[in-house]
Amino acid sequence: MEESMQIETKVRAESGTESGPRGASCTLRHFACEQNLLSRPDGSASFLQGVAEKSRERLIRNTCEAVVLGALHPRTSITVVLQVISDAGSLLACCLNAACMALVDAGVPMRALFCGVTCALDSDGTLMLDPTAKQEKEARAVLTFALDSVERKLLMSTTKGLYSDTELQQCLAAAQAASQHVFRFYRESLQRRYSKS
Amino acid sequence: LPCHIFNVCFRTVEPLEYYRRFLKENCRPDGRELGEFRTTTVNVGSIGTADGSSLVKLGNTTVICGIKAEFGAPPTDAPDKGYIVPNVDLSPLCSWRFRSGPPGEEAQVASQFIADVIENSQIIQKEDLCISPGKLAWVLYCDLICLNHDGNILDACTFALLAALKNVQLPEVNINEETALAEVNLKKKSYLNIRTHPVATSFAVFDDTLLIVDPTEEEEHLATGTLTVVTDEEGKLCCLHKPGGSGLTGAKLQDCMSRAVTRHKEVKKLMDEVFKSMKPK
């Protein structure tokens, strides 16, 4: 048991990646990813991003179902278990990112990758991407989107609060721009992992 | 094979292909256009034992809403607010897909959706439900029971809830200073102050590209995704519910918004007619 823990730690140190300093245009917080840190499941990932349950599960499940090529694995059950280690806001988006990375790590065939982005609108209409828990609580509206990697189409959306049509389009555009950053990070961390092993 | 027997067989064996043939001609098997809603009817105040009630029919989909007002202690973190507790009940009565017992996933999701709509739209100021801060407040139990599930349950439930809330009459309550008991005056009743009128419009996505409004149960089953938009009278959105499914572009989303705004006008007009025709008590 101890040996395997040590090996795991070693693997974690080697395969863990951290995103570099953020670009001026993107306002997502710092995030990091570790893969293959649990030995028993077929694939696992932890997604650390920045510092209502059945419905959240359903949203994540439906998003995964939309991208996973289930027809290639008939009579198979794919269980995605998400354990929240800490919640510093934008929880659903973080869960979606972790789910996607874990599916990739497990080698499940998918038609696209997906990522989650949260947008908050405060009382004077200022847009904030990837809000902290405090910002979410004080915001007038919080919108969470799941976007696919191929055409940045909207796969899933769940919103809280009141907002106008134009604000929705602005948030969606901002989320689509931010998703580029997330997908680039996926690519880099996967490249780094597979170039070492 | 005679033509009609072939159609029935084809519909059973290849339902998606059968639907595609209609969608190519921009219509659906029941004769509706892609952006057309089913006949909507609403009946208000038919349940005498409830404080407010309504019955909404969207084609064959039938939802009944009964609201009971009871006393309760206000929450400790918000002593000047009351509660609104919605519950959607999907029983085997309305469709073969449901079993009796604890609420299944669809019922739980629908209940959560209605709770979110109430919260986001601020349809009622919860402060209006408070009788005595920290001590007594109204609790509105909203029971939405589906009598027939033929698709688009969310739109029907939202409409039923709105109509029932408009029908609710609460008696006047005074707190007797000496005995500290609540005295209810059943002869003096007043309507709730409904601040906004949220209306839900649901769409089904077919083959990742085509959007149809007000899906029937069969269409929901064949669809590759669903979307529900809830708007208020100013065109503001209080809910954009897209639980996974095929992706949509920003432009398609814009089309859905426009349809939702038109639908809001249709529903508001229907509700105004119904309430105007009711005799004041």
From TrEMBL, chain A:
Domain Exoribonuclease phosphorolytic per the UniProt entry, residue ranges: 54-109, 113-177
GO molecular function: RNA binding
Domain of life: Eukaryota
One Pfam entry name: RNase_PH
Primary localisation category: nucleus
Keywords: Exosome, Nucleus, rRNA processing
Keyword Secreted included in the entry's annotation: no
GO cellular component, one term: nucleolus
Subcellular location, record wording: Nucleus
Xref: InterPro entries: ExoRNase_PH_dom1, ExoRNase_PH_dom2, ExoRNase_PH_dom2_sf, PNPase/RNase_PH_dom_sf, Ribosomal_Su5_D2-typ_SF, RNase_PH
Any GO BP annotation: poly(A)-dependent snoRNA 3'-end processing
Disordered: annotated span: 1-23
Family the UniProt entry places it in: Belongs to the RNase PH family.
Protein name: Exosome component 5
Source organism of this protein record: Catagonus wagneri
Gene symbol of the encoding locus: EXOSC5
Automatic annotation (TrEMBL), chain B:
Compartments it resides in: Cytoplasm; Nucleus, Nucleolus
Keyword Nucleus on entry: yes
Molecular function in Gene Ontology: identical protein binding; mRNA 3'-UTR AU-rich region binding
Gene Ontology biological process terms, A to Z: exonucleolytic trimming to generate mature 3'-end of 5.8S rRNA from tricistronic rRNA transcript (SSU-rRNA, 5.8S rRNA, LSU-rRNA); nuclear mRNA surveillance; nuclear polyadenylation-dependent rRNA catabolic process; rRNA catabolic process; TRAMP-dependent tRNA surveillance pathway; U1 snRNA 3'-end processing; U4 snRNA 3'-end processing; U5 snRNA 3'-end processing
InterPro entries in the record: ExoRNase_PH_dom1, ExoRNase_PH_dom2, ExoRNase_PH_dom2_sf, Exosome_comp_Rrp42_subfam, PNPase/RNase_PH_dom_sf, Ribosomal_Su5_D2-typ_SF, Rrp43
Domain Exoribonuclease phosphorolytic: 36-171, 198-261
Keyword terms of this UniProt record: Acetylation, Cytoplasm, Exosome, Nucleus, RNA-binding, rRNA processing
Keyword flag Lipoprotein: no
Domain of life: Eukaryota
Main subcellular location: cytoplasm
Pfam family membership, one: RNase_PH_C
GO cellular component terms, semicolon-separated: chromosome; cytoplasmic exosome (RNase complex); cytosol; fibrillar center; nuclear exosome (RNase complex); nucleoplasm
Family: Belongs to the RNase PH family.
Name the record gives this protein: Exosome complex component RRP43
Gene: EXOSC8
